[in-house]
What we know:
By secondary structure, this protein is α/β, with parallel strands linked by helices. The chain is built from 20 helices and 7 strands.
Amino acid sequence: MQSHQKLESDVLKEAQNCRRSIEQVMESINNLSIDDFLDNIIQSEQQILESKNHQEEQKIIEGLQYDCKKPFEHMDNILGLLGVLTPQYTDSKYIQELIGEKAKKKGIISSQIMWDQVRISQKEKFSRYNDEQLKEEIFELDKLLDEKYEYTLSYTADGKRKTIQVKYVDVLKLNPPNYLNDSIINFYLKFLENELINQELREKTYIFNTYFMEKLCPQDKVTNIDKSEINRLTDLFNHCFEQIKKWVKEDLFAKDYLLFPLNLPEHWSLIIVYKPGNVFKKQPCYIIYMDSFGIIDQKIILMIKLYLHKMWCQNSQEQSQFADSPIKNIQAFQPLVPRQVNYVDCGVFLLEYAEAFLNNTTYVVDKIEEYTSIDKLRLFPRCLVNKKRFLLKQLLINLIRLSKEEAIQIYKQEREKILIDNKNNQEEYDQIDQEYFQQYLAMKLPTERTQEQMRSILLDFYMNPNLNYYHTEMNQQ
């Protein structure tokens, strides 16, 4: 606990240094014209390019009218601890990109100053999600745990009685900053499916376990194949399918919602197939890719389509080529959803994506084909994810200490209270600032734009973890 407190103290001190340095830089920027700032950068860059001595290069950078590297060094220290990315704009690679027409350079510098202001604003807002009191409450629950702790969830799937065991070491994974493991993910998804949603919705839903996608899409093999190499991907699928073809006994095309938890290297995502049976009725059928870092892998989408095609042939006893199947043409969409601001909560987001989707499927799929309707940022308030670890840990403890009905009631009441209390709290929901987005759009694609291009650019604007070009303030238009 002492080391934990020391780390938090170091983070606070570094944050204060970072803030002071940033304020100095922003004051300097405001007092310096774009022309003067640009001339300083270009002049220094030309000297750097002519210099072959690393020490001279460092002196030239430090000789700018204001020191813009120091504050970002402070920022990198604090962001390294908090897990947020920020580029250093004094790197030679960045400065070299400014060489060209002066008008273009002005535009780039103006944009970078604007984006810096956005980043500073959002980092201040996100700092409140590093809730010290909540962390202590999560750790306090350890006092109610015993090293012999074990909870077994029993449920029926594919006509068989199955179980998932959660042990003491698994529960500790809910303590920040740990990643959630397979046991916690599988437990909660099956608990959600069998205990938290009603019978009618349960009959329409099938949730795969995490091991299914590991077998279907082994990452060590998939990552070595380019998405254009369809034949290699198909060969890999045929090999993998032999291992899982008997895993599912139910008719997946009779379900409305198929949920695939996906474990990429050190990252969790959720893929949803919406009403797969509709693909043969020429009615809406989608693949929805939810990822808290904005990642989408077309190879994995293809593997899921190949799997659905095989299952259709297997269940219907009809043989057809994938190339001729309507399953091939199922559209895949990546909506704008709440995203994480650290590197450890991807599993928590996966669980809340699943729960929020099943509680409000209409909100997620409504007009999802339209570029203007991919904004699903009100899926849940950000603080709900922040408190999800506590709620899950408390649930697992209560399932041992109380009756299952009491434990479920407490969980549902506390989660619902968070939703109600924050329904009208705009600070808890990200907003796309249209003014900033239109400037970004003009830079990226100044000419005519298709719906697909607009969707892609908007996702890039909001979700790209290297850009962080999104804003949490209300759009005033």
